[in-house]
Amino acid sequence: MKSVGKAAVSAILIALLLTYPLILAPVQAQSPQADRIQKLISILENESARLEKVVKSRVTNATKQQELLSQLSVVKELLDNASRLANAGSYNESLALLREARAELVSVSRQLVPVILGERKKFVARSLEAEIRALQNQIKAMQNVASRMQEKSVNASQVLSLLNEASGLLDQASEKLKANDTAGAAQLVEQAWGKVKEAERLVFSLATQLRARYVSKDLEHLKAAFNVTYARLSKVAPEVAEEFRAWFEQKVSKIEALVSAGKNAEALAELRRLMLEYRDYMVLLTQATRLENLARAAKQLAGVVRPCNATLARELEASANALLDAIKSRDMAKVLGTSQNLRSLMAEARFACRARRAQGKP
């Protein structure tokens, strides 16, 4: 649509450009005047070539295309004759031919404008037809979803009502297109989009409500996964396993209380949060030992670099303690941040005493 619009604007601009009057006053027979006339000829030749491309690419009616190309052929002859006259020193006669050529180009430009605008209208109509088909397919898919929801005792009547309204608007839009009223069709399609979007929001809300009905079953699945993890962890780290169990049971109790109170939607939201936290917790458990070793190594390194750089040693110890605190509190975000900072400090510490040793100091 943009390319067609640009073509229309281009044609109009060409018409405006060509309507500027050429030099009307007689000119003196001097060689600089010949150069000026040749420049005018070059401008008109360029505009003629540009219009010819537009005619060949945009005008689909063969008769009209031939008519416009014939006009442009006349322009070419006029420009050739004007060039010969200018070379012969007949500047005023040359300018007269240029005015005729300009008039022909303006005529072609004006005839192109309605042709291009008509083509743009056809393009808009085709785009609207495609949009209507896409929306109709989306409506059918959403109607199927709403019907399945109703089979599961979910009240989706409002969704179906909105979709029916949207479908009716699209039918009206199709009729408008048949009547060549693209503006009216576009308005109706936009209204249909609004109805479909509203229906989408309702479907999402109803889907959440439907999913909330099964929150107890989902919670049981998560409990089963926890029991497996807890059993394995108890064999290698009993204290950590007990801490893990206490944390998990506290979260589960909150969800079960919400379910008992009939607040299934809230319970579902809490369950989703728990599943994310559970994943992070598991990641932390698998990395805890390695990260604790990293913190201990950093503290040892702090003792080594303290004689060379006391400030860096303090930063190492502080960062190591912060990492241990984050591990203890099971704060995954803080663990990631402090561990990265600690690694950077440890890399810096490797070279902390190099300058001192180069000076022969211990």
How is this structure best described in words?
By secondary structure, the protein is mainly alpha-helical. It folds into three domains: 2-121; 123-212; 217-356, no CATH class. 87% of the residues lie in helices and 0% in strands. The protein has twelve helices and no strands. The protein has helices at residues 2-18, 31-58, 62-87, 91-151, 157-178, 182-212, 215-236, 238-260, 264-305, 310-329, 332-349, 354-358. Helix 2 runs parallel beside helix 4 (91-151) and helix 7 (215-236) runs parallel beside helix 9 (264-305). It is flat, with a radius of gyration of 40 Å. 25% of the residues are buried.
Secondary structure topology:
Elements: H1 2-18, H2 31-58, H3 62-87, H4 91-151, H5 157-178, H6 182-212, H7 215-236, H8 238-260, H9 264-305, H10 310-329, H11 332-349, H12 354-358
Helix pairs in contact: 1-2, 1-4, 2-3, 2-4, 3-4, 4-5, 4-6, 5-6, 6-9, 7-8, 7-9, 8-9, 9-10, 9-11, 10-11
Descriptors:
single chain, mainly alpha, 12 helices, 0% strand, flat
How large, in whole angstroms, is the Cα Rg? Answer: 40 Å
Order of helices and strands: HHHHHHHHHHHH
Main sheet record = none
- Strand content is under 5%
- The residue fraction in helices comes out at over 70%
From the N-terminal CA to the C-terminal CA, the straight-line distance is: 77 Å
Count of helical regions: 12
Shape call: flat
Number of domains: 3
Q: Uncertain spans, ≥5 residues at pLDDT below 50?
A: 1-6, 15-30, 357-361
Which class of secondary structure composition applies to the elements?
A: mainly alpha
Rounded mean pLDDT is 81
Count of extended strands: 0
